[in-house]
Amino acid sequence: MNASSKTATNSVRVITSPQEPYIWRPKWFLAMRFIAITGVSIALIASRTVFHIKTFDFRALWVLTALLLVCNILYVLYYRYARIEGSGDKQTMSKRLVRFITVQINIDLVLLTLMLHFSGGATNPFVFYYFFHTILSTILLSKPAAYTEASLAAVMFSAMTLFEGEGILKHYALFQAKYHTTPLFIISMISAVPSALYITVYLASSIMERLRLHRIELEVTLDEVRRLEMEKSRFLDVVAHDLKSPIASIESLVTSLLSVQGDKIEPSVKQTLERIPKRTKDLISFIQELLEFSRISNLKQITMQFKTLNFLPIVTATVEIYMSQALDKNIRISVQADPDIPPVLGSREHLEHMVSNLVSNAIRYTRENGSVTIKITAKNGDVFLTVADTGIGIPEDALPKIFTDFFRASNAKKFSTSGTGLGMSITKAIVEKHGGTISVQSQEGEGTAFTVRLPAAPRKINSAE
After folding, report:
1. Treating both helix axes as pointing N-terminal to C-terminal, what angle do 267-296 and 183-261 enclose, rounded to 10 degrees?
2. CB-side exposure of 453: number of CA atoms within 13 Å?
3. Which of 408, 358, 364, 360 is nearest to 385 (CA)?
4. How far is CA 301 from CA 289, 311, 356, in A?
5. Could you point out which of 31, 192, 285, 442 has its C-alpha 20 to 30 Å from the C-alpha of 268?
6. Which of helix, strand or coil describes residue 108?
7. What are the angstrom distances between the C-alpha of 235 and each of 238, 242, 261, 296?
8. Alpha carbon of 406 to those of 29, 49, 290, 322, 361: distances in Å?
9. Backbone phi and psi for residue 397, each to the nearest 5 degrees, phi listed first
10. In what order do the strands lie in the sheet with 447-455?
């Protein structure tokens, strides 16, 4: 991605340099205007009913408020149907957005000045809204354009103040005193407000330039992080593949040697050789976990494989694979399921891997004569899988880290030397990439229960594997 520019689908953000336009969320700007219209309406009603002000031209003020509402509706329609963000290159879209925003800001400026004129002119405290207008111009437009808008605001305000003071325009008094006609008041206002507007642009533009530069730096940094993540995944993939073949060959050679020459080998040497296949299997398992960890980090690769699947057969088929391991330890396994389990949208391979990790861990860390219970339920459009065991449990201080890469609890390391610490990390990644969540409840020495929530597939998709 080019660090100098970025576009998004929902809103266009154009960054070419700190001095050029930064169009940010036109929809937000339109929505804020509706809020402003509501605020003006409330202020007009309060002025008449609460403060009993009779000097304002309320008819003109209501007409201007209605005009502002009509203008904003037209802006919304134009924005929606003209598709100023949906076609053309970045430069063309930037120019369209700048024109669109500039028109809105200038019309707002005229309407604000007229509203002030009909409600007290320079004596109205709402004259400070010129500064909000100037700040918005600085945020949404380039620095030269912001100074231009500040100049227009200064000219309009100064003209209104001067003309009302000289009697050229009628003054709708907010206060009984007629200080709006005094030269000191006129000179003070047409000096203070314009200068304050320029200072506001200077300060706001300085802040915006820093924010824009930080945004560019952040985008460059994020791109570099993504690149490094991809490099890491590729490195793990290559290393795992390169290690797997020779290790598998070592295991095969040692197994063949023991099978053919086992009776002729000295007992001490044979005992050492018999350990090799077990160690190589552990190492191959670790490599497979690394490969899966590398693949699972690629979200697009997984979501492309999503299909509508019946979840219950996936669970039962996976549990069958581990029945022999459970029987070796005399562990009772039971599967309980609601009668109507809706299908889920996902990858069969990864869902099987997720269930496999949960079930194999439950069996591994459960002592002989224990039990493992698998429950599948459906509630409120979600499918829940709970794998509970009566095993060694997880220490309380280890629970927050249980889904961390390469983490194994201290009691797990003592109970079983094998294990990569990636199983739960991969399981969590699979669940989250399927739009679900996973939680754990455990007490050391009494057992552990993992609960997975997966969203059910949309009803409009009827076919399920």
Report:
1. 150
2. 9
3. 358
4. 17, 21, 20
5. 285
6. helix
7. 5, 11, 39, 14
8. 47, 69, 10, 23, 15
9. -70, -15
10. 332-337, 371-379, 382-389, 447-455, 437-443
- How far CA 403 is from CA of 9, 421, 422, 431, in Å, comes to 33, 9, 8, 12
**Strand bridging mode 332-337 / 371-379:** parallel
386 phi and psi angles, rounded to 5 deg: -120, 125
DSSP 243-255: HHHHHHHHHHHHH
DSSP 458: P
Per-residue pLDDT in tens (0 to 9) along the chain, 465 residues: 333 333 333 333 343 444 444 445 677 788 888 999 999 999 999 998 998 888 999 999 999 999 999 999 999 998 888 776 655 567 777 788 888 889 999 999 999 999 999 999 999 989 999 998 899 888 888 889 999 999 999 999 999 999 999 999 999 988 777 878 888 989 999 999 999 999 999 999 898 888 888 888 988 898 888 788 777 767 766 776 677 677 777 778 888 877 777 777 888 777 777 778 777 776 777 777 767 766 666 555 556 578 899 999 999 999 999 999 899 999 999 999 998 899 999 989 889 989 999 999 999 999 999 999 999 999 988 999 999 999 999 999 899 999 888 788 888 888 876 667 778 888 998 999 899 999 999 999 899 999 999 999 886 544 555
355 to each of 121, 224, 377, 423, 464, how far by Cα in Å? 72, 34, 15, 11, 19
The whole-angstrom separation of Cα 362 and Cα 374 is: 10
Q: Are 109 and 157 in contact (CB under 8 A)?
A: no
Which H or E element spans position 91?
A: helix 90-117
One-letter identity of residue 205: S
State the pTM of this model: 0.53
**Contact between 325 and 365 (Cβ < 8 Å):** no
